[in-house]
Each structure stands twice: as C-alpha cells, then as structure tokens.
Amino acid sequence: MSGLKVLVVEDEPLVRIDISDSLVDAGFEVIEAANAADAIAALESHADIRLIFTDIDMPGSMDGLMLAAAVADRWPPVRIIVTSGHRIVEITDMPDGSVFFSKPYRATEIVASMHELLRG
User: Which of 24, 58, 63, 67 is the S-S candidate for 11 at Cβ 3.0 to 4.6 Å?
Assistant: First the structure.
C-alpha cells in the first residue's frame, strides 16, 4: 500500500501535522486540507486520492460528516475515516463503509484501519 494518496482534513494544525507525519512514516503520500472547501479542491485536482481522514468539527459551511457524504456521493471509490474529539457518531450517520475514531486516537490504529479499508 506504499505510496497511496491520503487526504487529511483537520483544522487544528498540530493535530494535522502529527497524523500526517505518522501516515508518511507508514508509507502513504499525504495531502493536507484545513477545511472541507480545501478538501473538495484537493479531490478535484488529485484524482488518485484513495482515502480521506477527516475531523468532524471544522470551520466553514461544511463539517466532516457533510464532507464524508459529499465524497461518498461524488467520489465513491474513496474510502473515508471520520474522527472527532467532541462527538460520538453512529455508523448510520456516516456513508456506508466509513469508519469512526474518537479523539484521542492512536496513529497505529488509524494506519491499520486505512490498510483494512484499502484492501476491502
């Protein structure tokens, strides 16, 4: 799975840098976005993104759950992981096949989940 492109969507710079570094160390190529609008622009310009990892609570007109729904609708092959430190999300609140992680999460668990999603 080395070199697969992952989009990390997180408005907190230190959190975004931390998970991005962990994903790079695991062999992924990472694109970063601070909000849903930037994430959509990244998806439009990088057709080879295979997975997004998005926080729910972000500034702008679209939160992470709305972004996940938009991605599932517009880019169905893209796998989705959603995270939040403030909300617990039911599986029915997310697109089919998506995964949820509460913050704080362990990067090793995120990487393992990404490998599982991308194999499936």
Answer: 58
pTM for the complete prediction?
A: 0.95
Name the percent of the chain in helix, strand, coil, to the closest 5. 40, 20, 35
Report the C-alpha gap between 47 and 44 in whole angstroms.
Answer: 7
Sign of the C-alpha dihedral, residues 22, 81, 103, 36? Answer: positive
**Which single residue is written with the structure tokens 């599986």?**
91
CA 20 to chain centroid, in Å, comes to 11
Q: Helix crossing, 36-45 with 64-74: angle to 10°?
A: 20
pLDDT at position 1, please?
57
